[in-house]
Specification:
Subcellular location: Cytoplasm
Helix content: 25-40%
Pfam family, one: WHD_2nd_SelB
CATH class of the largest domain: Alpha Beta
Number of strands: 34
Protein name: Selenocysteine-specific elongation factor
CATH architecture of the largest domain: 3-Layer(aba) Sandwich
Radius of gyration: 32 Å
Function: Translation factor necessary for the incorporation of selenocysteine into proteins. It probably replaces EF-Tu for the insertion of selenocysteine directed by the UGA codon. SelB binds GTP and GDP.
CATH topology of the largest domain: Rossmann fold
Number of helices: 19
Organism: Thalassobacillus devorans
């Protein structure tokens, strides 16, 4: 099953117990800075791994600052989360930052939430009822009206188990992020570690990242290379969408990368200072928003000052409807269609709303209703966009499923598919369709997995096909067809059930090559009457683990026969003996005739002949064996592709 990665946000008012609750769930204290310890408040987002019972998921908790002064850090922390825990202290109830955090989370499109009342041991049952009533009253009619509410106490452990269970239930129905898309990781921290160089941290929004990848930091367009990747202090070869990652880069210093920069691997993303957007305002504005009013825009982990430009009004006091307008920024940001953002007013300081990007890199427009109508139309996805988006999400779908989910006319869909197939953007696979770019990205992942496997297992013919299919975000039959597609295209090669990179051939690792050659020479000299396999390793100082790998190498390459689990015979003396026996006997031969040619005891002779049966050289009959084929035509050390 494909690995699942999730990020949970821990939000709420200062001193309401977010950090303590994170520690109760993960046993990690996310207040790591000296100033945070001294002031007993969170200044930067803290991160901790959460291990859920009965779930093999990779889950991160982000504990964001609760103080109003650190709202930018809070927004940077919750960018890209899948579930939020809204923390409310039982002895204080809903406070100003609780409200603002809820507004921000809702505007960022974070739909799944759990309301958690902390410090529950400080209040009695009667107060619990009042607190719950107050919270339910506040969220009524808002985004988190239906969110579950739990009472917990981080010190005594009350309610922690129930919270863990609920988190598991919520995440189990959450879709995973697109790990095969174009890679994007907004940076929320950059620092230097002596002896290692520059480290950047962030939550991977889309795609995946591998060691040695070449990356680009936007908006400054500076290149770097990935030296190391860690997920919660554990080194990994590859990190995926939904994971928190600390990335050691070469080519740039700490001063070259800052919070708000975006690490990418392709030209799928642009930098811009002009965004066409649709926005939603908060319920409570301190004062009207005037035409071209200064605003601070928070997108990803970036903050940019700019102004808001309306096209159908000169002032907004309140509005429950979406407003189509434009943001003109003083500095470039990285954005694409459908990205979400937050708007705050610099003075008086407040969150005024948020929205969705309709178009990044937009042109300036004239004031008037026509512009608003144009933006409304632009915000609607085209039929082709719906098709491409659906295939991005599902990876593979048949025509009936596409017709149903895109709500397109069947003929229009068929024509659109044929056009995209002819132009090479879509491929046909097993009576369904895949985006060529998705196929290429999946191949990149499989190739990376094989490269890692080959490096770790140089003696093996390749990785088991079933294991590779299990890595694909596709059902098993479609995954099998995709593997066969790559095989036919020459992108992969196969040896029976084992798949490998086209350029790979099993080899003796440099540090053991001399030992293995010496072992093979002695082993082959012993002919058919060999010693136990492990004894060769003992004599030449080869560890048992490598002896097992070496045994697998000879068997996979058809260079040996295994007799009884302890004895391995090289194929050359086997082939020579069978070929001699073939020429010295008629259509059949007896055990005695075989013994005279093979010159081995019954201990070796019987399993050798049984192996001959299994290989299709002979078949057992009442008084001996009958030849099926000439041994030289079957007993070859050349491995054939499946």
């Amino acid at each position: 099953m494909h690995k699942r990665f999730y990020t949970i946000g821990m939000a709420g008012h200062i001193d309401h117990g977010k950090t303590a609750l994170t520690k109760a769930l993960t046993e990690v204290d996310t207040d790591r800075l000296k100033e945070e310890k001294e002031r007993n408040i969170s200044i930067e987002p803290g991160f901790a791994p959460l291990k859920l019972q009965n779930h093999d998921w990779n889950v991160s908790i982000i504990d964001v600052p609760g103080h109003e002064k650190f709202i930018r850090q809070m927004i940077a922390g919750v960018a890209g989360i899948d579930l939020v825990i809204i923390v409310i202290a039982g002895d204080e109830g809903i406070m100003p930052q609780t409200r603002e955090h809820m507004d921000i989370l809702s505007l960022l499109g974070v739909e799944e939430a759990i309301l958690v009342v902390t410090k529950a041991d400080l209040i009695d049952e009667e107060m619990e009822e009042l607190v719950e009533e107050d919270i339910r009253s506040y969220v009524k009619g808002k985004s988190y009206e239906r969110a579950e509410l739990l009472f917990v106490d981080s010190l005594s452990g009350r309610g922690i188990y129930e919270l863990e269970q609920l988190i598991g239930e919520k995440l189990s129905v959450q879709p995973t992020r697109d790990a095969s898309g174009a890679f994007r990781m907004p940076v929320d921290q950059s620092f230097t570690i002596k002896g290692q160089g520059t480290i950047v941290r962030g939550t991977i929004f889309e795609g995946s990242l591998r060691i040695e990848d070449r990356v680009l930091f936007l908006p400054q367009y500076q290149q770097a290379r990935i030296r190391q990747i860690e997920v919660h202090h554990t080194p990994v070869i590859q990190a995926f969408a939904g994971q928190r990652a600390a990335v050691n880069i070469t080519g740039l210093g700490k001063e070259d990368v800052k919070r708000g920069d975006v690490m990418v691997k392709s030209d799928a993303f642009i930098t811009t200072q002009t965004l066409d957007v649709r926005i939603t305002l908060v319920d409570h504005l301190l004062s009207p928003i005037k035409q071209r009013a200064p605003v601070n825009v928070y997108i990803g982990t970036a903050q940019a000052a700019g102004k808001i430009v309306f096209f159908d009004r000169n002032e907004v006091t309140e509005s429950s409807e979406e407003i189509f307008c434009q943001l003109r920024l003083n500095e470039p940001v990285v954005a694409k269609r459908s990205d979400r953002f937050i708007l705050r007013r610099p003075t008086p300081v407040e969150t005024i709303g948020g929205g969705v990007v309709i178009e990044a890199g937009a042109e300036k427009h004239r004031f008037g209703v026509n512009t608003v109508e144009m933006l409304k139309e632009k915000s609607k996805t085209t039929p082709e966009e719906r098709l491409i988006h659906l295939l991005h999400q599902t990876k593979w779908m048949d025509e009936q499923g596409l017709w149903k989910d895109t709500a397109m006319d069947p003929k229009q869909l068929k024509d659109m598919l044929q056009t995209n197939i002819a132009e090479g953007r879509i491929i046909v696979l097993s009576n369904g369709y895949m985006l060529k770019e998705e196929v290429d990205r999946l191949l990149e992942d499989i190739a990376g997995s094989l490269k890692e496997y080959h490096d770790q297992n140089p003696l093996r013919a390749g990785k088991n096909k079933a294991e590779l299919i299990a890595q694909l975000p596709l059902n098993k039959p479609i995954g099998k067809r995709l593997m066969d597609y790559w095989l036919k295209k020459g992108e992969l090669k196969a040896f029976g059930q084992y798949f490998a990179l086209p350029s790979f051939a099993p080899y003796f690792p440099k540090e053991w090559a001399d030992h293995f050659h010496a072992l093979e020479k002695q082993w082959r000299q012993d002919g058919l009457e060999v010693k136990t396999w492990n004894s060769y390793g003992v004599e030449l100082g080869v560890p048992d683990s490598w002896m097992q790998e070496l045994k697998l190498f000879y068997l996979q390459q058809n260079l040996a026969w295994e007799l009884d689990g302890k004895h391995l015979v090289h194929i050359q003396p086997v082939r020579e003996s069978f070929e001699q026996l073939y020429h010295e006997t008629e259509e059949a031969f007896s055990l005695k005739e075989a013994k005279e040619v093979f010159q081995v005891s019954r201990k070796y002779l019987v399993p050798l002949l049984e192996n001959g049966d299994e290989a299709g050289v002979t078949i057992r009959i009442e008084n001996g064996r009958k030849w099926l084929k000439q041994p030289s035509k079957i007993l070859s050390n050349k491995q054939e592709a499946d």
